[in-house]
């Protein structure tokens, strides 16, 4: 078993998650501590500007406008996060075999064979003195895959530990929502639609805070059924998996004419409904849905999702002993080890790549 640290900065732009696991790339030997380094408001604003500048990029190694500054920020923030993690947990860097570094996605257009995660893996390895596996999506996209979602191979390892029978879906609700369908050896995955991104952006404009804390605003509002029905008619929602999204693919869908409460309620319902729409497009309707990511902490979203997916069981991953907030960081630790061993990260049923495919670039300190 190798000790691996995983790092994740998701499309919600809230901060850097850190997690340590022990794994051989197939089985999970032990879960270690987790950590978090929040982005400051000015850092988050820089990343939002980088997302805007990335929209015009046509080459994945280009860093026009503010993107070069943003890449330095991402690298520094991840180095800070790991150094703090070492200190907090009295952990020697010599005890860590590898770091899995996702970086910050600022552009994802797999139909153009283009995906961009900013963050300098080589600089991070030099700073930490630990080998770093990075650039984990590019190989899949170059081979014709969607490059996302990447986490399903880790979801599968977690579900195997539960020893459950029957089809299970793991729902990850970050900025974008995605699902992993697991039934024996069958592994299917896709993005389902907006996760927290539309809601977070709306709340930022209205309140100055990019979150509907505990779903309180949505709980007080009324869903605009006509708006929701129209939004769900977009072709993406009826397309079969695998499929993936850029964070801003639904940014033109606005609720700015609504009150804060009604807008939050409508966008929350949109996330839940779009997740539920994938169910009939799977080989079987899952009997169990396990929800992880930031959305699992939103009681209003969880309630609506439970109503949409009934009579199936909807459970938070944290209620099963999973680290709901750090699960993607754990996944990138797991995938870093798989990359070191040449094991596949993506599969035909998860990204549409023609055959199981490994990926990642190794940077040595």
Separation, N- and C-terminal Cα atoms? 21 Å
Can you tell me the CATH class of the largest domain? Alpha Beta
From the 3D structure, determine the CATH topology of the largest domain: Nucleotidyltransferase, domain 5
How many independent structural domains?
2
Give a count of the beta strands, DSSP E runs of length 2 or more: 12
Q: List unreliable stretches of 5+ residues.
A: none
Describe the protein.
The protein is of the alpha/beta class and 365 residues long. It has two domains: 2-147 and 338-363, Nucleotidyltransferase, domain 5, CATH 3.30.420; 152-320, ATPase, nucleotide binding domain (Nucleotidyltransferase, domain 5), CATH 3.30.420.40. 35% of the residues lie in helices and 23% in strands. It has helices at residues 41-54, 67-88, 121-128, 138-142, 152-162, 197-207, 216-220, 225-231, 260-276, 299-309, 327-340, 348-351, and strands at 2-9, 15-23, 28-38, 98-109, 114-118, 132-134, 168-173, 176-183, 186-194, 288-292, 313-316, 361-363. The longest helix is centred in the first third of the chain and has 22 residues, at 67-88. The chain is globular. 53% of the residues are buried. The mean pLDDT is 95. It catalyses: 1,6-anhydro-N-acetyl-beta-muramate + ATP + H2O = N-acetyl-D-muramate 6-phosphate + ADP + H(+). This is Anhydro-N-acetylmuramic acid kinase.
